Amino acid sequence: MKKLLKLSMLSLGLIASGSTFAQGACSVNYTTTNAWGNGGQQDLVITNTSAAKTNWQLCWTFNGNEVINNLWNGSYTTNGKNVCVKNASYNGNLPANGTAAFGFTHTNAPGAKPTSFTLNGVACGGNASSASSTPSSIPTTSSSRSSSSTPTTSSSRSSSSLPMDSARWLLNNTKSVLNFVSVKNTDVAETFTFGQLQGTVSSSGQATMTIPLASILTGVDIRNTRMQSMLFESNYLPNLHFTTQLDLVAIDAMAAGSTSTLSLTGSLILHGVIKPLTFEALVIKHANNSVSFSPRKPIVINSTDFDLNAGIELLRMTAGATTIGEKVPVYFKMFLTKDNPTNLPAINLATVPNTPLNLVGNVSQGSGDATLNWADTSSNETGFLVRRKGLDGRWTTKANLGANFSTYVDNLINTGGSFTYKIISYAGSIPSLPSNEVILGLNGIDPSSSSASSRSAVSSSVMSSSSSISYIGDATRGKTDWENADIGCKFCHAVNPDGTAGASVSKIDPRNLRYTTVSGLAKYIEDNMPKGNPTACVGQCAADTAAYFLSLTPITVSSSMSSNSRISSSSSSLSSSTSSKSSGSSSSTPALNGAQLYVDKGCAGCHGARGDNAMRPIVLDRWTRLTLISKIDATMPLGNPTACVGDCATAIADFILSWKPIVSCNADEDVLPRRLRLLTNREYANTINDLLNISTGATIAASFEPDTEVKGFDNNAEASKINNGRMDAYWNAAKQVAETVSMTNLMTCSAGTARDQCANTFVPAFGKKAFRRPLVAAEQTSYSNLFRLGSSNEAGARLVIQSMLSSPNFLYRAEIGSVVSGASNLTPYETANLLSYTFTGSMPDATLFTEADNNRLTTPAQLRTQAERLLATTKAASQFSHFGLQWLHVDDVANLQRDKTLYPQFTQAIGTAMKTELETFLNELFLKPGYKMADVFNPGFTFVNGTLASYYGMSGVSGTNFQKVTTNSQRGGVLAMGAVTTTLATVTGSHPIHRGLLVRRNLLCQDFAPPPPNVGEVEPLNPNKPTRERFAAHTNNPNCQSCHQYIDDIGFGFENYDAVGRFRTTEGNNIAINASGTISGLAVMTESDSYSFTDLRGLSTVLATAGTESTSKCLTKQYHRFTTGVSEPNECAVRSSYSRWQNKSTDLRDMMLETVTSPTFLTRK
């Protein structure tokens, strides 16, 4: 109290005459420029009489009842009569003796001019300020209610009676860091951060962190700008805030070097939304005046919770990305220091404005005006946000209004449908709770009315319609709009000869749009285009522009009868507004006419707008141009095939095939994206086994959620993601391992070694292995500090092990490269990781680390040398077995359930032996030189032990060891493997569909859509009816036949093998097996090439001879899926890999080795 009294007296004693207050830190010229009965205008000039500043904040207390309603050249916060003004982004630099000016207008008559000011928390007399801000009214862990029933902090003092509260702890902006990971295009993970972090803890324990959102750092300037405007809307919601209450007594009581775990509950304030947030934090007391906080596991922020998902969708469309994740994990470590030599005040957040009440609305069905009205119950708001939600469920900010607004009009004439509205008041970045919601929409408007459009409806090519209004989109008019400089489409999206528009990040392709109809695209144009002036093209203009752009789909023709390749026309021509047939049946009809015919002939109603009706999907890879034309001409539409023949069938076929992107492999191979790949459970198990010299990794990883399989493989980069449950499992596993692992071979120093010395040897050595790269200086310092917190050297090492095993640097494989933007080469250590996990499924060995240390992993020869070395290891055998089992869709054979009455001979031991047979066979073929693709099907040998040989009925084999034996026609090759035929069966019998799908999907890479629902089941096992007859009733179903005509005949070729892999010649009650069949379309399923066979050996022979090219190409694609973690690998990369393999040799081993010689193996973008 004496100190405060002294400061007050000192500041009063320094008041100079007039309106200029000469003080130690600054002088302030406070001038009344205008005054009126209930308000006025004030202009202030600050002169800095102390050291230079890069940011400034001037604070004072009004002597009257002034309320600021507008301020320029800065930003302000108020609590009662206390005011603080911060510099704007352009006037923060304040040199010694320099000046800064700002001004404001206010309501209410002014009192006497303020006489006490502080600059950056220091009284302008040179001492700590005695004026103060109150705690904000953001909810924290202990709260009370103000008279307005708005949540407040634990303080119960009124805002006008609190003295200035100097911060007890300050955030160390230099050491603190906050990152979040964004995933785009399904598997490209990028780490973003912020350039500015601010934070304080008041003497009452009120902790507040503020992040200026304009400081977002993504590594790409244009992306920074887009996130500021499209996502955060930081021009009027500039900051993120987090507030919580800390127990300062407990923190002060912590001994230096000790750790603690706290459960923190606070409020996250972001984008006009306040949400409670609870997480466990690790607290480390580094010194008496230094403490850090970090979450025990990543905090997952869901954009939907903060009305941000519409902004993410806008970013996605603007960037041309296929996806951008709407949930992000956030990692941070905040360092607080108790040093506050200049007595900076605790951060003062604005009081939460009162919630707008009684929102009501009505719609004029004539004009389309939706009028909103609400009660403005707050006196401190900066403005109001009008947010609107459509059918997509995403809230967008429709308007940002100033203070004191209570009405808004939104015109729905061009939108259609209904919308939900809510109103949020805000002060600075502090929002109120949202108002009640109202739903408004149009019932229907005559499109010819003058209020609907200034253009008359004319005949055109396509129509946009909604429940409220229909606009006829005319492509010819749209071309004029597109090229209109006032609208500006062509400046970003000039039309290219191939029918796309724009270049680089502005490139858009009419075949790859999310919006494939005029109405959908027109709505997007209305709401978002052109950037910066979305009202420039609405209504008829938007519909016409959409029609023009959708007409740019290139005309496509087939390059040959036997290939799926398509060549785009050299230029894109504008289709006419009406459909006309050419006289020649083989001529190509413009794609736009095909699109209209696709609708007119009922195709869209049956198959979906893009063949995406799950009941009757169109699988593009199944067709060539000629086979699709033939199919449509002969059979479509169902029930009336003569309705579309000749030119009609050709036009629709060309339109359907235009959905598939054109593949041109004249340029270099496609480059994979820069990304982080989460370790699979198997990779995790292998890695901790090798890292810690243990053998329990598989048991530990079994506690994790199973990896998601995509296209049969468990390492898909898109599907591999961390959620809260998985992170908990990682943390628990790290804790368990760290507490129990033997330190004998891990410690690099003894118990008697000095703590610092031991930390400086253990941390970099273990860290390099755990992170699969050397630690950077900051990491080494951080983990060394953690090491020192242990009660002994061993205890410190266990702390480091636990922390590193739960770090993203351990859990993820990095493929980022050394360049921040653009194409970049992988670092030597990333290359070592890529080689090791590709060929062994685990971390790099000592040799790879040495090669990386010496930068000897850069040339194709060096990479192939290491790949050959790795393929000779036992780990490579295990890794390729893992690939092979997934490639051939083989389950855990030993634990398959079979009817013990029908198959008593099948035991767990037999299943285990079958799996070993397959694994040994695959390792022989793929890891040793000299074997060809034909040997996969007809090798003339297999591997069995005495038990399995007896089960198969083979003589001359005994003992438990597996031996390479010559086979007759019943055995040998993957199709006849017991593991394959048994897996692809049921509990009671064989299953031709499963077996036929193995050949089509896994060996020929010809896919099928899922079967439609309610198609019925196959007849149950009947000893008096052969399998063919039982399946015929099912597969002859018209809903099934279009697919099963390509599947079942292949599956019948396996019928000599029962549900447990034994060879048979009869089934049921001595019914003779008929295993004959045909297989057609080896390259493209619907082509006419056809091959007959009498049994499985005959089918294997077809695949080993006529099918060699198709099966080899499919194997290459499957191996790319496995090594890259991409479900649909780039077609050009697969073709190039296949060509390198065939040109090198046709050995199966070279198929794998040639992957590392790709010119893009070490490159990412």
UniProtKB/TrEMBL annotation:
<feature type="domain" description="CBM2">
    <location>
        <begin position="19"/>
        <end position="127"/>
    </location>
</feature>
<feature type="compositionally biased region" description="Low complexity">
    <location>
        <begin position="559"/>
        <end position="588"/>
    </location>
</feature>
<keyword id="KW-0408">Iron</keyword>
<dbReference type="Pfam" id="PF00553">
    <property type="entry name" value="CBM_2"/>
</dbReference>
<feature type="region of interest" description="Disordered">
    <location>
        <begin position="559"/>
        <end position="591"/>
    </location>
</feature>
<dbReference type="GO" id="GO:0030247">
    <property type="term" value="F:polysaccharide binding"/>
</dbReference>
<feature type="domain" description="Cytochrome c">
    <location>
        <begin position="589"/>
        <end position="695"/>
    </location>
</feature>
<dbReference type="InterPro" id="IPR009056">
    <property type="entry name" value="Cyt_c-like_dom"/>
</dbReference>
<feature type="domain" description="Cytochrome c">
    <location>
        <begin position="473"/>
        <end position="553"/>
    </location>
</feature>
<dbReference type="GO" id="GO:0009055">
    <property type="term" value="F:electron transfer activity"/>
</dbReference>
<dbReference type="InterPro" id="IPR013039">
    <property type="entry name" value="DUF1588"/>
</dbReference>
<dbReference type="InterPro" id="IPR008965">
    <property type="entry name" value="CBM2/CBM3_carb-bd_dom_sf"/>
</dbReference>
<dbReference type="Pfam" id="PF04264">
    <property type="entry name" value="YceI"/>
</dbReference>
<dbReference type="GO" id="GO:0005975">
    <property type="term" value="P:carbohydrate metabolic process"/>
</dbReference>
<dbReference type="InterPro" id="IPR036909">
    <property type="entry name" value="Cyt_c-like_dom_sf"/>
</dbReference>
<keyword id="KW-0349">Heme</keyword>
<dbReference type="InterPro" id="IPR012291">
    <property type="entry name" value="CBM2_carb-bd_dom_sf"/>
</dbReference>
<dbReference type="InterPro" id="IPR013783">
    <property type="entry name" value="Ig-like_fold"/>
</dbReference>
<dbReference type="GO" id="GO:0004553">
    <property type="term" value="F:hydrolase activity, hydrolyzing O-glycosyl compounds"/>
</dbReference>
<keyword id="KW-0479">Metal-binding</keyword>
<dbReference type="GO" id="GO:0046872">
    <property type="term" value="F:metal ion binding"/>
</dbReference>
<dbReference type="GO" id="GO:0020037">
    <property type="term" value="F:heme binding"/>
</dbReference>
<dbReference type="InterPro" id="IPR001919">
    <property type="entry name" value="CBD2"/>
</dbReference>
<feature type="compositionally biased region" description="Low complexity">
    <location>
        <begin position="129"/>
        <end position="161"/>
    </location>
</feature>
<dbReference type="InterPro" id="IPR013036">
    <property type="entry name" value="DUF1587"/>
</dbReference>
<dbReference type="InterPro" id="IPR007372">
    <property type="entry name" value="Lipid/polyisoprenoid-bd_YceI"/>
</dbReference>
<dbReference type="Pfam" id="PF07637">
    <property type="entry name" value="PSD5"/>
</dbReference>
<dbReference type="Pfam" id="PF07631">
    <property type="entry name" value="PSD4"/>
</dbReference>
<dbReference type="Pfam" id="PF07626">
    <property type="entry name" value="PSD3"/>
</dbReference>
<protein>
    <submittedName>
        <fullName>Cbp2D carbohydrate binding protein</fullName>
    </submittedName>
</protein>
<dbReference type="InterPro" id="IPR036761">
    <property type="entry name" value="TTHA0802/YceI-like_sf"/>
</dbReference>
<feature type="region of interest" description="Disordered">
    <location>
        <begin position="129"/>
        <end position="162"/>
    </location>
</feature>
<dbReference type="InterPro" id="IPR013042">
    <property type="entry name" value="DUF1592"/>
</dbReference>
<dbReference type="InterPro" id="IPR013043">
    <property type="entry name" value="DUF1595"/>
</dbReference>
<dbReference type="Pfam" id="PF07627">
    <property type="entry name" value="PSCyt3"/>
</dbReference>
